[in-house]
Amino acid sequence: MESKQVYNGKVISVKVDKVQINKKSTIREVVEHGGSAAILPLIGDTIIMEKQYRYPVSKDLFEIPAGTLEKGESPEKCAARELIEETGYKAGNLKPLGRFYMSPGYCTEVMHVFVATNLSKVESHEMDDDEVIEIVRVTVDDAVKMILKGEIEDAKTVCAVLAYAQQSKR
Q1: Residue pLDDT, tens place only, 102-151
Q2: Contacts of 83 by beta carbon, 8 Å cutoff, 6+ apart
Q3: pTM of whole model > 0.85?
Q4: Which of 47, 68, 75, 128 is the most exposed place for a label (fewest CB within 10 A)?
Q5: CA distance 61 to 136
């Protein structure tokens, strides 16, 4: 019925929409995001994971590498770029694992998840200035245990690890 842009930033924009649902007028706040890619990097059965401080939740989180798609960039290219930037590893093989909406109740972001194998260390790489990342190596089995104990709380990491663990059992 009506839409008003209330914020336009580097990564997201926010709009407030007046919509009609069940013949009743209501308001929906929508965070618009251009999409992202996440990578489950594997050396054998070991995941190259990150421990990273996240300001919005004021704590360190265990995560897989991920990042926002640049304008016109494919999810595969984003995944390959982010893997190098955040871990210093280049994927010899990048295979799609799945895709999901991050939080469809208020956000348009679709995350594409890839499994990266045949990793090789790059000579040099530059992280974003605002990132402080510690590389942590965790086996797939230990990552599943960490999820079940509540030690891994990041949604993309939970989804990727559990999907991979289930898929590799087949």
Answers
A1: 999 999 999 999 999 999 999 877 766 777 899 999 999 999 999 999 99
A2: 39, 41, 65, 89, 90, 91, 116
A3: yes
A4: 128
A5: 11
Q: What is the DSSP track for 71-107?
A: TT--HHHHHHHHHHHHHSEE-SEEEEEEEEES-TTTB
Q: Where are the domains of the chain?
A: 1-33, 34-169
Q: Are 61 and 154 in contact (CB under 8 A)?
A: yes
Tokens describing residue 155: 């949604």
DSSP structure string for 98-146: EEEES-TTTB--EEEEEEEES-EE-S-----TT--EEEEEEEHHHHHHH
Cα 129 → chain centroid: 19
- Give the Å distances, CA to CA, from 60 to 134, 148, 152, 153: 10, 18, 10, 10
CATH class of segment(s) 34-169 = alpha beta
* Cα 114 from Cα 79, distance rounded (Å): 7
Taken in order 83, 87, 89, 94, is the CA torsion positive or negative?
Answer: negative
Alpha-carbon span 168 to 170, nearest angstrom: 5
